[in-house]
């Protein structure tokens, strides 16, 4: 049986200072299977960004277990986490996060240049151009990010997230910096990617876009809620059974 | 205005102590050094001499030539100077003679030694020497008057007569002659230093009583000075030519039978008193100024980095100010106010540092420099410091306001703020980093250059026995009342008495040792292998007995040393140093220095000492002495007990010491007129002569550390700011899978680029200077351009290592914390 792409069990995250402890996540159990499109929503401060950081190995949990494609990743070193991030995860940020000094082509090629085993120049070129074609931006390969509109920049960010063929695409408020027309276009593109088999996990405030996902999770005070507003006990039990198998 | 001043001062000095302290210390220390060295250079090159019509004061000098070949750079017949003084010259308004010596006052308690200046009556009025008491020498106390009178310096009056106004009319006895005190100079008198740097005259005596003996046309002494005050329209070059025209036939006629001088000529020249006073100090003085300018440049680049870093950290407060209506001019005023607040304590520190520098210079820590007496934290220092600070504050405030991109700051109010904190151009930061590195490299290269040379000078074995004592004796009235042979006999007895009293292993008697308290070059002479004195070889010439030579530390390489009989009879035999032996052997073998054994090959060969018509026989070759300030080790030693001013060299068994009192007691047994007037250990004298090298090592080491520390601080400020600005970008790279080594490599390459530019710029600058020198476009840089590749490589390696360490230190927080911290902008917290 193929292990789920993401399997989180009892994940907690505590931010501690000298004076107080903040429980950002209080026992998150989450499974994302290949081809899923999961949206996470909730009010400000509910832990969405923290969860996304943990999912993307940008931060490490305080407790619990986290597996990506069956491999435990919760205790990895920063360097090992970087390998996994590079090979398994693609990021799309709200503010695009393209590097101004690099061209569109080089921005997209960046994940391939950080590969553990170096990728041939011709392969990089092929894959970058293929991704540019996917987002319909081939004609902008030699431009700098600041020469592009917000919508175009986000399409480049999507291409960069796709170039490494990740197992999971983590999307953080992809439409937050875009007008509705560009926002809709980006969401259409993400849906199309999902239809083509890409696994997506998206954080959004916008209920309209959250509804476009195949599964919708609500986060409140560091816990995932059922649709009726109670913590997902049943779901948790099912997850534990999968893990036991 | 005053209220906002105090408010800013309170914030800066109380809440941002580290920032304020760093700026105040950096400005105060470096500007203090700059103010001090500027003042020193102003004093030496620009400040008017404190004498009336100083530009018309000239010193007569000369050099000796043989067929267009200079034999001696400083040579002037004493008789010629005297005769010129006696004659009237239409171009000359006033003339004065000056002669220096050291002697013991016989009638003062403890027989203290004094620096004496023998002068004609015109000398002190020529320099408008102010009086505290009495008068100058009067015209009837001039040349050939034989009237023994003296004018005291203010220090001697205070120290030996407790400032008693009744000192006038009292007498001071030197060599049996009683000099009546007729005046005391005022404390403010600045003596023109004509003889040796650092010389300070204690007593001014009538010229007739100098200790030189009768002058003649073959006698030269660097202790005699003929001073002229020219008429306003007189040309020094024409006057020197007139002197030369007049003196040439006199010189030739007087030296017709002198084998050494008959083929020589003397070229006369006039040197301004200002130039004479400046002497060789220009190099040291300008080097000190260049060093402090470099330090200041590093410091200013540093401060620029610090204030820029702080301004960038204040982005939020700046944007709020702009939102509230602040214009660029408001920012400029705010920064100017901040700098002005910091400039006040920096000015106080700067002036204190400058004062400390003056004190150190006056204490002789940088070696003897002229006009130090006139250096002080006067109005010039204060005005210069204030002027520099005003310019610095205005420039920094203007530059900082221009660097902050006002428009972008305004826009940042409307953005989320993520990753948009770049208000200062990358080029500016790179330029700052490059300038910092460049200044640091230049300082390090030149400091290491000077340091290595000075250290080599200190560590070079001199060949001198540093366990000996040098005792200079005065013979008091014996010089006038006794015969030469009688005195020689007394000096030999004195050596025996000291040996008996002190259990010394060696007590030799001779003339001035190769290194002594007296002027360097005093014993310069020459020798020739030819009876006609052709092809003279410049050498140092010393005389003494066998124990004197042994006590110096000389070891016999071949042949034999002087016998007591040879010394007593002053036989025509000599010992020569190995260097001289090599040179003579090469000449003998027609330029080929291939003699199998120069030491023994020169034995029994004839050698003509300067002025001698009969040859001396070389009986031995002794080891070389390598002494500070003496480029050449060629020396010739003659067997003789000097007829006056003898030196005893005393070597004691290890662990024993000698005192001046003990020597005086021994001398008293021989003759009451014999006294010690200088008493030093050889180590002490050697230490004095290597003082400049010691100072150079300490100063260059301190300067290097300071430059490195300042540059380190500046480089740290720029790199930290750069990495803070790039924090978000680096985090994005990390989120895409960049590993720690990728980030380290990226930041290291970016930070080392300015270093490469600095090296390139330095190489281009160096090559251009070298080219200019080769083509003769510029002069005086030759020494500056002799850079040892190892020193340059070491300096480069040090800066490279420093930059790498700083980069690693700055980027480390990003590499050791989860990426999310960098994305949130808290990685460096």
Task: Compile the SSE list and pairings.
The complex is a heterodimer of chains A (245) and B (829).
Chain A: E1 6-16, E2 21-32, E3 37-41, H1 48-55, E4 63-68, E5 71-72, H2 78-88, E6 89-92, H3 104-113, H4 121-134, H5 150-162, E7 168-172, H6 180-195, E8 200-203, H7 207-210, E9 215-220, E10 223-225, H8 233-244
Helix pairs in contact in A: 3-4, 3-5, 4-5, 5-6
Chain B: H1 2-15, H2 17-46, E1 57-66, E2 69-72, H3 78-86, E3 92-104, E4 113-119, H4 123-126, E5 131-134, E6 149-152, H5 154-161, E7 171-174, E8 177-185, E9 203-206, E10 224-230, H6 236-254, E11 264-272, H7 273-278, H8 281-313, H9 315-323, H10 328-362, H11 379-403, H12 406-412, H13 426-459, E12 468-474, H14 478-481, H15 484-502, E13 506-510, E14 524-528, E15 537-544, H16 546-552, E16 556-559, H17 564-568, E17 573-577, H18 578-588, H19 598-601, E18 606-609, E19 616-622, E20 635-639, E21 647-651, H20 660-670, E22 675-681, H21 682-689, H22 691-735, H23 740-774, H24 789-816, H25 819-824
Parallel strand pairs in B: 4-9, 6-8, 15-20, 17-19
Antiparallel strand pairs in B: 1-2, 1-10, 1-11, 3-4, 3-10, 5-8, 6-9, 7-8, 12-21, 12-22, 13-21, 14-15, 14-18, 16-19, 17-20, 18-19
Helix pairs in contact in B: 1-2, 1-10, 2-8, 2-10, 2-11, 8-11, 8-13, 8-22, 9-12, 10-11, 13-22, 13-23, 13-24, 15-20, 22-23, 22-24, 23-24
Task: Looking at this protein, list some descriptive labels.
heterodimer; A: about 240 residues; alpha/beta; Rossmann fold; 6-stranded mixed sheet; 8 helices; 10 strands; B: about 850 residues; alpha+beta; 4 domains; 11-stranded mixed sheet; 6-stranded mixed beta barrel; about 50% helix
Question: How would you characterize the overall build of this protein?
Answer:
The complex is a heterodimer of chains A (245) and B (829). Chain A is of the alpha/beta class and 245 residues long. Chain A has one domain: Rossmann fold, CATH 3.40.50.300. In chain A, 36% of the residues lie in helices and 24% in strands. Chain A is built from 8 helices and 10 strands. In chain A, strand 9 and strand 10 form a beta hairpin. The mean pLDDT of chain A is 85. About 1% of the residues of chain B have low confidence. With 829 residues, chain B is an alpha+beta fold. Helix content of chain B is 50%, strand content 17%. Chain B has 4 domains: 197 residues, no CATH class; 195 residues, no CATH class; 177 residues, no CATH class; 221 residues, no CATH class. In chain B, the strands form 3 sheets. In chain B, strands 1, 2, 3, 4, 5, 6, 7, 8, 9, 10 and 11 form an 11-stranded mixed beta sheet that branches. A 6-stranded mixed beta barrel of chain B has the order 14-15-20-17-19-18. A 4-stranded antiparallel beta sheet of chain B has the order 13-21-12-22, with helices on both faces. In chain B, strand 7 and strand 8 form a beta hairpin.
């Amino acid at each position: 049986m193929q292990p789920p792409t993401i399997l989180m069990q009892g994940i907690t995250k505590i931010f501690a200072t000298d004076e107080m402890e903040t429980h950002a996540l209080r026992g998150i159990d989450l499974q994302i299977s290949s081809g899923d499109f999961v949206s996470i929503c909730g009010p400000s401060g509910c832990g969405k960004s923290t969860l996304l950081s943990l999912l993307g190995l940008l931060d490490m949990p305080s407790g619990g277990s986290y597996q990506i494609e069956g491999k435990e990743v919760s205790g990895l070193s920063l360097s090992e986490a970087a390998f996994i991030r590079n090979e398994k995860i693609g990021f799309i940020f709200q503010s695009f996060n393209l590097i101004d000094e690099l061209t569109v082509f080089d921005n997209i090629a960046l994940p391939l240049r950080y590969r553990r085993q170096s990728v041939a120049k011709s392969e990089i070129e092929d894959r970058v151009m293929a991704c540019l074609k996917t987002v319909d931006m081939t004609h902008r390969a030699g431009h700098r990010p600041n020469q592009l509109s917000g919508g175009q920049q986000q399409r480049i960010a999507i291409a960069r997230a796709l170039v490494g063929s990740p197992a999971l695409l983590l999307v953080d408020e992809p439409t937050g910096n875009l007008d509705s027309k560009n926002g809709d276009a980006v969401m259409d593109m993400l849906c199309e990617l999902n239809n083509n088999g890409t696994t997506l996990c998206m954080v959004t405030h916008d209920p309209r876009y959250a509804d476009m996902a195949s599964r919708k999770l609500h986060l409140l005070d560091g816990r995932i809620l059922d649709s009726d507003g109670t913590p997902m006990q049943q779901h948790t039990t099912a997850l534990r059974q999968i893990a036991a198998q | 205005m005053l209220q906002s001043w105090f408010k800013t001062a309170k914030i800066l000095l109380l809440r941002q102590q580290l920032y304020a302290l760093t700026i105040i210390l950096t400005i105060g220390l470096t500007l203090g050094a700059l103010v001090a060295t500027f003042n020193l250079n102003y004093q030496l090159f620009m400040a008017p001499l404190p004498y009336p019509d100083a530009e018309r004061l000239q010193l007569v000098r000369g050099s000796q030539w043989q067929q267009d070949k200079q034999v001696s750079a400083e040579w002037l017949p004493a008789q010629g100077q005297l005769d010129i003084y006696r004659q009237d010259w239409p171009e000359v308004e006033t003339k004065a003679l000056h002669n220096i010596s050291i002697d013991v006052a016989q009638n003062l308690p403890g027989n203290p030694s004094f620096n004496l200046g023998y002068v004609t009556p015109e000398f002190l009025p020529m320099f408008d020497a102010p009086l505290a008491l009495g008068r100058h020498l009067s015209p009837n106390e001039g040349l050939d008057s034989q009237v023994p009178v003296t004018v005291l310096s203010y220090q001697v009056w205070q120290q030996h007569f407790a400032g008693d106004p009744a000192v006038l009319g009292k007498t001071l006895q030197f060599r049996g002659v009683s000099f009546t005190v007729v005046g005391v100079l005022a404390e403010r008198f600045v003596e023109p230093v004509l003889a040796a740097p650092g010389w300070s005259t204690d007593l001014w005596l009538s010229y007739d009583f100098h200790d030189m003996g009768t002058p003649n046309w073959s006698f030269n002494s660097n202790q005699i000075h003929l001073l002229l005050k020219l008429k306003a329209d007189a040309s020094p070059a024409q006057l020197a030519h007139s002197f030369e025209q007049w003196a040439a036939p006199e010189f030739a006629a007087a030296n017709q039978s002198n084998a050494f001088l008959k083929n020589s000529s003397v070229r006369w020249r006039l040197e301004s008193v200002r130039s004479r006073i400046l002497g060789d100090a220009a190099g040291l003085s300008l080097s000190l100024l260049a060093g402090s300018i470099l330090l200041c440049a590093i410091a200013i680049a540093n401060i620029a980095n610090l204030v820029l870093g702080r301004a960038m950290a204040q982005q939020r407060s700046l944007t709020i100010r702009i939102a509230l209506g602040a214009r660029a001019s408001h920012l400029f005023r705010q920064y100017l106010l901040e700098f002005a607040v910091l400039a006040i304590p920096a000015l106080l520190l700067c002036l204190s540092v400058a004062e400390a520098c003056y004190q150190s210079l006056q204490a002789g820590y940088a070696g003897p420099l002229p006009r130090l007496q006139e250096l002080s934290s006067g109005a010039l220092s204060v005005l210069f410091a204030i002027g520099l600070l005003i310019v610095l504050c205005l420039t920094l405030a203007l530059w900082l306001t221009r660097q902050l991109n006002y428009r972008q700051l305004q826009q940042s109010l409307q953005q989320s703020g993520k990753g948009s904190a770049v208000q200062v151009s990358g080029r500016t930061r790179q330029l700052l980093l490059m300038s910092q590195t460049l200044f640091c490299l230049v300082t390090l290269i030149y400091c290491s250059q000077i340091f290595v040379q000075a250290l080599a000078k200190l560590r070079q074995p001199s060949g001198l026995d540093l366990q000996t004592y040098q005792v200079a004796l005065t013979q008091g009235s014996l010089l006038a009342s006794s015969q030469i042979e009688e005195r020689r006999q007394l000096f030999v007895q004195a050596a025996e008495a000291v040996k008996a009293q002190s259990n010394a292993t060696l007590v030799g008697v001779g003339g001035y040792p190769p290194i002594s308290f007296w002027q360097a070059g005093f014993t310069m002479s020459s020798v020739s292998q030819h009876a006609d004195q052709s092809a003279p070889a410049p050498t140092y010439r010393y005389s003494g007995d066998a124990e004197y030579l042994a006590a110096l530390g000389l070891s016999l390489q071949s042949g034999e040393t002087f016998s007591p009989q040879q010394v007593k009879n002053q036989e025509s035999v000599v010992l020569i140093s190995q260097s001289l032996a090599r040179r003579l052997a090469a000449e003998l073998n027609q330029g080929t220095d291939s003699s199998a054994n120069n030491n023994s090959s020169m034995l029994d060969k004839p050698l003509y000492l300067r002025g001698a018509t009969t040859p001396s026989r070389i009986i031995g070759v002794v080891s070389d002495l390598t002494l500070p300030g003496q480029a050449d080790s060629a020396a010739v030693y003659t067997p003789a007990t000097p007829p006056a001013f003898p030196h005893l060299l005393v070597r004691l068994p290890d662990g024993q010491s000698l005192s001046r009192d003990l020597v005086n007691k021994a001398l008293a047994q021989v003759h009451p007129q014999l006294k010690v007037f200088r008493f030093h250990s050889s180590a002490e004298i050697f230490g004095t002569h290597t003082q400049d090298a010691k100072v150079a090592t300490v100063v260059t080491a301190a300067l290097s550390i300071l430059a490195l520390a300042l540059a380190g601080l500046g480089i740290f400020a720029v790199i930290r700011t750069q990495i803070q600005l790039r924090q978000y970008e680096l985090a994005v790279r990390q989120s895409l899978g960049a590993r720690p080594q990728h980030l380290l490599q990226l930041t290291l390459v970016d930070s080392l680029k300015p270093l490469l530019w600095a090296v390139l710029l330095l190489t281009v600058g160096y090559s251009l200077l070298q080219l200019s020198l080769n083509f003769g476009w510029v002069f005086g840089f030759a020494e500056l351009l002799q850079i040892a590749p190892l020193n340059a490589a070491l300096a480069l390696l040090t800066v490279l290592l420093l930059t790498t360490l700083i980069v690693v230190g700055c980027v480390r927080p990003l590499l050791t914390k989860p990426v999310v911290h960098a994305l949130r902008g808290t990685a460096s917290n």
